[in-house]
Specification:
The complex is a heterodimer of chains A (327) and B (350).
Chain A lengths: L5 E12 L2 E13 L4 E5 L6 H8 L8 E9 L2 E2 L5 H10 L1 E4 L3 H4 L6 H12 L4 H14 L5 H4 L9 H13 L5 E5 L7 H18 L2 E5 L3 H7 L2 E6 L2 E7 H6 L4 H8 L39 H5 L5 E2 L4 E2 L5 H4 L4
Parallel strand pairs in A: 3-8, 3-9, 6-7, 7-8
Antiparallel strand pairs in A: 1-2, 1-4, 4-5, 9-10, 10-12, 11-12
Chain B lengths: L11 E11 L4 H7 L5 E12 L4 E5 L6 H8 L7 E6 L2 E2 H6 L1 H4 L2 E4 L13 H11 L6 H14 L16 H13 L5 E5 L7 H18 L2 E6 L2 H7 L2 E6 L2 E7 H6 L4 H9 L38 H5 L5 E3 L2 E3 L2 H5 L3 H5 L11
Parallel strand pairs in B: 3-8, 3-9, 6-7, 7-8
Antiparallel strand pairs in B: 1-2, 1-4, 4-5, 9-10, 10-12, 11-12
Helix pairs in contact in B: 5-6, 5-7, 6-7, 7-8
Classes of the chains: A alpha/beta (327), B alpha/beta (350).
Protein name (chain B): ATP-binding cassette domain-containing protein
Subcellular location (chain B): Cell inner membrane
Keywords (chain B): ATP-binding, Nucleotide-binding, Transport
Chain lengths: 327, 350
């Protein structure tokens, strides 16, 4: 059997600080198949962006990968020298970030940026690159693409700019796209357009997508599977329908219940008491136990691994029975 | 002096409120290039009233003018046109009078930027108490601060700490405690939860609702998040390019939206229930408020637009329990389209 397109094994990211080493990611493991959209959700500081940054090799020093492996089509990429990784990034892994202005170079036209990216990564000439650049702008829904190719990023509106960023991330035909809050800076109407676009393009080309967002609504309609992160660990992972409708981990359940519904008014929203711990104060055992209404003795002592919870896998001792004795 | 105040008057009345910003290039540049003045009509003729003890929410996409309305209402901007009456008083007079001014406070979006990082939390919360001279003596002040901290779900001991020692949600609690410290009756809340994670958002929304019940507060709530608005509002105003396009009781607005823009907005929201369902995007983008389209500003994106919509600006007219600014609704042309998904909206109009 072919290895998954992306496999992350037991990933650990550490930040040495004056007061000691902080563990930002702790034992994160998951895989993404070709053509699949994996959603990654969690609250700020849960480690979702850190996971994306680790895969594309963009962890800000002094942060570093302290353990585990990242494999692209079965080949390790976490230990590659900078130059090799740089070539993979862009050619095989595309990235879309929240703020299109930080991704685009304000001094070059969007056409030049698209052409340059393709010339760097694809075996094509300038003519062909220009032709494809227009094609990409059309594909992401930019009207009058042939004229807009000579425009600078500041001449586009926010929604249009994010389309350019998507074109830029996809134009080298990567196998994997890491999209970190791609629609968070956009209004709902534009957000819907961008999501539809991203989904269509990936379906059409079999690109795998890791979609990082705090917006469960976006995940629910876009992702095939979803990983819920908490305090640098995966709390639950499974098919999006299962995780959203029948969450197995008490944290996921609390998270889902706290989302205000659009179709009715509730007198009081369900809330999880307290807040996610800081990296310097992660409790022993299950990181969620101080806030968990169902915590028992073992949760305070021993950290649960991802256990089979019937439909999803959850890092929660409540599911030990089903999972049998292996943990 | 303030005799004009009617006890039964709404907490806030806004009439034909407008705020225009001059965003022209410098004079020399205009002379050389022959360019005219450029006026951005951020808010252009908005009227509403908020009865005491209720919540009115303003929703819309970025640039629709909702935050500008919030700033006009608390007096951070001077209106270009129109009137704001607070508890029966002209806002200008009310702002000049400390006894009136303390009755109105604001909560901002960003709990990281709105708290002074060099002040202890107890000083942040006590500032309005001191400014208005509300309690006499250090001991009474300390007691009041402790009471406020407890009220918003923090510990009195937290008063000794600095803002950076708190998470985003706790900071927003501090902002709320500060806003409550002058015992206001009216709070303007500008996106109070949009910088917060969803589980923390639930805590803050629950707190705000509880405080409203206990203290009889009146809220003007500004948000782009329709699901949040549904949870907190008695009435909802939908803004587009500086104007209200629909104003209705919350239940009516969410169950039977009338304006094509309201329907499109509701349709565009991703919802958890719709796993696997394709969302229908609204076509196009909000046009520039510097050069808004003639007639109804929404017509380039509207599936119901006709010649009249392109030429004549619709007025807010009653339609059932709502008021709606739409020729199609007025003429009864919206009936058929109401059963269609708003995805019938014209594709990209840009």
């Amino acid at each position: 059997m072919a290895p998954p397109l992306l496999e992350v094994r037991d990933l650990r990211v550490e930040f040495p600080t004056r007061r000691g080493v902080l563990t930002a990611l702790d034992g994160v493991s998951f895989a993404i198949e070709a053509g699949e959209v994996l959603g990654v959700v969690g609250e700020s500081g849960a480690g979702k962006s850190m996971t994306g940054a680790a895969i594309i090799g963009l962890i800000e020093p002094p942060g570093r990968i302290a353990g585990g492996q990242i494999l692209l089509e079965g080949r390790r990429i976490d230990d590659l020298p900078y130059e090799r990784l740089r070539r993979i990034r862009g050619r095989e892994i595309g990235a879309i970030f929240q703020d299109p202005l930080t991704t685009l170079n304000p001094l070059y036209t969007v056409g030049e940026q698209l052409e340059e990216t393709m010339l760097t990564h694809l075996p094509i000439g300038r003519e062909e690159a220009r032709r494809r650049a227009v094609g990409w702008l059309e594909r992401v829904g930019i009207p009058a693409a042939a004229q807009r190719i000579g425009s600078y990023p500041h001449e586009f509106s926010g929604g249009m700019r994010q389309r350019v960023v998507i074109a830029l991330a996809l134009c080298a035909e990567p196998k994997l796209v890491i999209a970190d809050e791609p629609t968070t800076a956009l209004d709902v109407s534009i957000q819907a357009q961008i999501i539809a676009l991203l989904k269509g393009l990936t379906r059409e080309r079999g690109t795998a997508v890791m979609l990082i967002t705090h917006d469960m609504g976006v995940i629910a309609e876009t992702a095939d599977r979803v990983a819920v992160m908490y305090a640098g660990r995966i709390a639950e992972i499974g098919p999006v329908r299962e995780v959203v409708k029948h969450p197995r981990h008490p944290y996921t359940a609390g998270l889902m219940a706290s989302i205000p519904p659009l179709d009715r008014r509730v007198e009081r929203l369900a809330q999880i008491e307290g807040a996610m711990p800081r990296l310097s104060e992660i409790p022993p055992g299950c990181a969620f136990h101080p806030r968990c209404p169902q915590a028992f003795d073992r949760c305070r002592r021993e950290r649960p691994g991802l256990l089979d919870a019937g439909g999803t896998r959850a890092a929660c001792w409540l599911h030990l029975d089903r999972a049998g004795r292996h943990a | 002096m303030r005799d004009g105040a009617d006890p039964a008057a709404p907490m806030l009345e806004v009439e034909d409120l407008a705020k225009h910003f001059d965003v022209s290039r410098p004079l020399l540049h205009r002379l050389l290039s022959g360019e005219g003045r450029r006026i951005l009509r951020a808010v252009d003729g908005v009227s509403f009233a908020i009865p005491k003890g209720t919540t009115l929410s303003l929703v819309g996409e970025s640039g629709c003018g909702k935050s500008t309305v919030a700033r006009l209402v608390v007096g951070l901007y001077t209106p270009t046109r129109g009137r704001v009456r607070f508890a029966g008083h002209d806002l200008h007079e009310a702002r000049a009078d400390a006894a009136q001014r303390r009755r109105m406070q604001m909560i901002f979006q960003d709990p990281y930027a709105s708290l002074n990082p060099r002040w202890r939390v107890r000083d942040i919360i006590a500032e309005p108490i001191r400014a208005f001279g509300l309690v006499k003596g250090r001991a009474a002040e300390r007691e009041r601060v402790a009471e406020l901290l407890t009220h918003v779900g923090l510990s009195p001991l937290d008063g000794e700490k600095y803002p950076h020692e708190f998470s985003g949600g706790q900071r927003q609690r501090i902002s709320i405690a500060r806003a409550l410290s002058s015992s206001p009756e009216f709070l303007v809340c500008d996106e109070p939860t949009s910088a917060l994670d969803v589980s923390v958002q639930a805590q803050i929304l629950n707190l705000m609702k509880a405080l409203q019940r206990e203290l009889g507060l009146t809220y003007l709530f500004i948000s782009h998040n329709l699901a949040v608005v549904r949870q907190v509002s008695d009435r909802v105003g939908v803004m587009y390019l500086g104007r209200l396009v629909e104003l209705a009781p919350a239940e009516t607005l969410f169950t039977a939206p009338r304006h094509p823009y309201t329907r499109a907005l509701l349709d565009a929201v991703p919802d958890l229930g719709m796993t696997g369902r394709q969302r229908v995007p609204v076509g196009g983008e909000v046009p520039s408020p510097i050069a808004p389209p003639p007639g109804c500003a929404f017509h380039p994106r509207c599936p119901l637009a006709d010649a009249r919509c392109r030429a004549e600006r619709p007025a807010l007219l009653p339609a059932g329990e709502a008021v709606v600014a739409c020729h199609a609704v007025e003429e009864g042309r919206d009936g058929a389209a109401r059963r269609e998904p708003a995805g019938a909206l014209a594709p990209d109009a840009a």
